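Two entries, shown back to back:
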Amino acid sequence: MVDIASAARPLLDIRDLSVAFPGARVPVVRGASLSVRRGEMVGLVGESGSGKTLTALSVVRLVPPGVRLSGRVWLDGAGSEGSESGDDLLTLPEKAMQRVRGRRIGFVFQEPMSALDPLYTIGFQIAEAVCAQRRVTRREAREEVVRLLDRVALPDARRRLGDYPHQLSGGQRQRVGIAMALAAGPDLLLADEPTTALDVTLQAQVLELLARLRAELGLAVLLITHDLGIVADTCDRVAVMHHGEVVETAGVESLFSAPVHPYTQKLLASLPSACLPSSGERAGGAGRGAGGEGPLAEAIQLSHEFAVRRGLLQRTEGVVRAVDRVDLTIRRGECLALVGESGSGKTTLGRCLIRLLEPTSGRIVFAGEDLLALRPRPLRALRRRFQMVFQDPYGSLDPRQRVGSILDEPLALHTGLGPGERAERVKELLTSVGLGAELAERWPHELSGGQRQRVGIARALAAGPDLLVADEPASALDVSLRGQILDLLAGLRARLGLALLFISHDLGAVEQLADRVAVLYLGRIVEEAAREDLFRRPQHPYTVSLLSAVPGRGRQRLVLQGEAPSPLAPPAGCPFHPRCPVARARCAEETPPLESGVACFYPGELTAVNIWGARA
């Protein structure tokens, strides 16, 4: 139980913190001040490069040599009359600071795969953290590791002690990282973007875990994130950083209802309405079109299988059916969203539709043409009518070509324009995606993430397509950049009459952009409906869980336990039944067909309480 008197004063009090790199004329972090009380969760939000992570690293002095820290970072708070109690972490000797790290302050790093050593088992690494802070026998350390893994709800913890990091999923690795941070029983947890690389259901599990640990252990948490929806759902107070400065600090309700600083107002304006605290009817859908002018692209019983090969001779040991007999129609001018967890088959289906991957079976019809029956030359001629925006803009742009050359290449391939006309068209393309013509002379590494994604969109538009397949086009971007890309896609679609296949696990973005939504689970469509119907009256339990996991206040949350089964050994019957809260004996024996837009024997049973907070 947290003592009321001690909870009234800060556990962590950062005053006028500045961080300067060698040779830099201006500090990267300038005069930052914020506090965290015992048992409190404070969100530290801002775009990439705003100084959030550097502020947290400075608290525990995990900064590169030569970096200058100034100001004060007090642990255990300051007296009410100004008499300072506790420790100034910036002036502590390094030996004393080593005792603070882990024992007083735990740190959850942003990327667990990088934070964990690939050469050692997870049991060894957590035991190392335990032994660094207290004297225990090997057996006691092992039991403590099992206890910690049980506490963070890692399934079958004792058996997983000998697993290496690469053998765990992203959500499981993040649980291991949290267990390591808790190994010495800290009072304060610094969690740096702990859900950034996770899809919506795993994100909900990690957030629920942090909330439970906070309640059980009385932990104070400084949660670093760029996702304001998460802040709305989990935090008590929030501090907003911009260009190295804390520009606003307020209670969550106050900040969302009446933001004061213009930058905070800008961040909130860029947040999809599905992620805002609920307040009656939701706005959304600017730039959506009616669609429905007839089918442009169709997948008919489409399947794609990957062979799993192992050993020196690469013998086939199994088959993964990434796409399993999918029927899908994209109408002219509409936006169809594909949603689902990582590994559900979204990207594979999108690539099969435009023959970047060859389907194992089924048919693909585009504008009346059977794509799988076309020979290479007519297929190449038709490719200009369907293009793709890839998930990773940096990986999809040739680092050895300037932006102008990258955009010129599809023009030379698919149009009859001469060099001068193509140069003018390159300028027009850059302008159409909100970039200056001068960027044609830049290299990809000289662009920001948002600029690179805009170049990727411009390249896809170069051939004048009718269909754009956008694979997680904003997943790697900050909230404001994400909003800009979504607005750009909506504007281009309205202006050019594009059909859009929007692949995403971000249901806030889907709510903003899509006309219809198809939900995938283990390669199968389990629900398909108009956006309004699916968001207001979801029928499949999996859809309900996805929607309820979207961060934001005013929703009843249904957190799925565990992760999706391996597609190498899918369960019999309904593939969702091992995780379904309404599954019955029939679900384990029979596979439900997709009828009336839902593949479930008991549709609608979880919609008695609408996930948006109102009665259904």
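entry 2 starts here
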Amino acid sequence: MIPCFALAFWFIASASAQYPVKKGTSNIVSTLPDANKIVLPPSVPDPFEPFNRGVWLFNRVLLSDVVKPTAKGYRVVVRKPVRTAINNFGRNIAYPVRLVNNLLQRKWTGARDETDRFFCNSIAGVAGFMDVATKLNIPKSDADFGQTLGQWGWKPQIYLMLPIYGPSNERDTVGLAADTAANPLTYISPYSFDAADPLTYISPYTYLSYGLMYNSLSDTVDDYARFAQTEADPYSEIQYAWTFVRKNRVADFRVKGKQDPATLETLETVFFKPKDLSFPDRGRTRMVYLPSTHHELRYTTWMQKDKAAIVYIVPGLGSHRLADTALALAELVYDQGYSVVTVSSPYNWEFMKEASTAAMPAYTPVDVHDLHVALTAINARLERIYPGRIGQKAVLGYSMGGFEAMFLAGAETTNARPLLKFDRYVGINSPVRLLYGVNKLDEFYNAPLAWPAKERTADIENTFLKVAAFTQNSLRPNTTLPFDEVESKFLIGLVFRLNLRDIIFVSQDRHNQHVLKQELNGWHRGPVYDEILQYSYEDYFQKFVIPYYRKRGIDLSAPDALEKASDLRTYASALAANPNIRLMVNRNDFLLPPEDLAWLQSIFPPERLKVFEQGGHLGNLANPTVQKTIVGMLDGLRPVAPAPPVKKSSPAQNAAPVPVPGTLK
């Protein structure tokens, strides 16, 4: 079951996860006719959600506090080739499970292939410790009793979170018992069977099976733990993803409509990850007290041993400081001799709870001011911890973080001490207008409205099945993704709708405006999630943000008030006059319409603005040429420590600035 847990995680991480819904209903609540609304495929019902969340919490603690720390030592003692050999042995000895289920599912070719693999690996592979069959191109045909029961017509009715084994349902739990009975390891025990001895019943598996499970987890537990740490509600995402990971239906990989290069390139963002798998754990997470909120904010550092310029990385909308893109950028910059700090986005649940003076993000002057206060406090603390080792300072943001970095640069002349002054402002794929960007995300989420209403939900399910199938294989950059324009746009819109869900839930949990009718219950979130998902980004601004700020003396309902406050063109003169700005954009970025690109080119000379023709939104970050450009935008900062070896593994342009109000309590 652990491998399936991993598939669910990777499914989520690849931007396809959603939220729990009641069977037979949509988690999009709408008064529009069916032809004009998105109805997502239902997940397996979760009637025991509070109990399942408790088990998930147990699993999370077990992974983070037991398996992860011990796995570090285990990996030192048991080297990678040995761990791989143990995994190979574990799979090989479970051959009877796959044979029986391939036969029961009438997969005759699969049964033959698994038999060929078993004898090949058992003989030539020394009891299965070496996977000779794969080198001989003999395909795998994984099968288990849960799949067999599904093929025989058993449709799951109850979602279950099992201790240790992770997500399941009543069908797969029965299948797990049958898999156990068919696994030879079940009958190899370190103790004799004794009906009166409790050890006999401690688990359906013996210590040997748990050892194999631990060995497998030792290489993936860091990703599991980081996923649980970075997501606002990882349980709900796993719950929905599990539905499609365990679907007994083969995806139709045909591309029925035209493809959209910009959004397909955007999906390739998933390939930009740290090259050195140990890099995330080499960072040190600290906390800094913020008087403005009376809370401590977490941040993560990678410090050079000698004095070096320091780069503060601000991630995209809703992203966590330990998200893959933030970590990959941190590694890229650190390997060039810079010290690095990552913080979570002002739209992320962590920043909202710990550093935001407003109950909800949306009003850029307040959000960026809170970010600036946090970075100032972090820098002051680092100066105390590492005296004499902090050189010049840069802020590097991508996507929404790039927008916020540019906003900081535009407001530089109005920022009073003791707010931190930066020596370089770097933006990657920054939008120019926030409201244009979020409206585009709403548009993408509604892209499936182009499909016939009767087929729409089934087509969305097929899109999810495609993603689930792809995430079970090792993807490489430049892989041809089988998504048409509607599918690729929808997947992007879905990810940001997930961010909006978290933003609304966290904001209302902090400051309940009583807009939502359902109870805000952290242990039973399904009903309130269903309700939240009726809200678009436009609804969020109109029904939550504007009323909130109106009560605090800021009228954002006035014509152009919110738009002007969230538009870089408001700061055109200051941006043009700031020589320390560096910006990189893509011409086919869907968040950057031609008129906004033309505006950027009108105020920034070529040496301060790099335009790539392709890449969509952040989709070309894995490209070496793009990475060289990113590093080049930091040139001139001093000092820079010796780089360590890289391990493989149309408002008026001169409008007056919007004043930054004081912190909101």
